[in-house]
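User: quick one, sequence for these C-alpha cells?
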C-alpha cells in the first residue's frame, strides 16, 4: 500500500469519524430536547397536582361545613317535629274540651 493510498484511507476514516461524531451530536441534542420537554412536563404536572391537592382540601373543608349545617338542620327539624307533635296533642285536647263544653251548653 502506497503512502497516497494510506493517506486516502486515513482521510476516509477521518471523514467517517466526523460523520459519526455529527450523528452522535445530533442524537444527543435530540435526547437533550426530550429531556428538557420532560422536565417542563414534570414541572407542569407538579403544579397541577399541587392545585389539585389544594382544591381537594378546600372541597373537604366545604363538605365538613356542609355536614355541620346538615346536622344542625336535622336537629332543628327534629325539634320542630316534636313541637308539631305536642301541638297536635294540644289541639286534640282543646277540640275534646270544646266538644264537651258545647255538649254541656247545648244540653247534649
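Assistant:
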Amino acid at each position: 500500500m502506497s503512502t497516497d493510498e494510506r493517506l486516502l484511507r486515513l482521510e476516509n476514516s477521518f471523514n467517517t469519524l466526523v460523520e459519526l461524531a455529527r450523528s452522535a451530536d445530533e442524537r444527543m441534542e435530540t435526547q437533550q430536547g426530550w429531556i428538557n420537554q420532560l422536565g417542563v412536563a414534570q414541572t407542569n404536572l407538579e403544579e397541577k397536582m399541587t392545585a389539585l391537592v389544594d382544591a381537594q382540601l378546600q372541597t373537604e373543608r366545604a363538605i365538613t361545613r356542609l355536614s355541620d349545617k346538615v346536622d344542625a338542620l336535622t336537629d332543628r327539624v327534629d325539634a320542630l317535629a316534636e313541637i308539631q307533635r305536642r301541638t297536635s296533642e294540644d289541639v286534640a285536647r282543646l277540640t275534646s274540651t270544646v266538644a264537651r263544653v258545647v255538649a254541656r251548653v247545648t244540653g247534649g
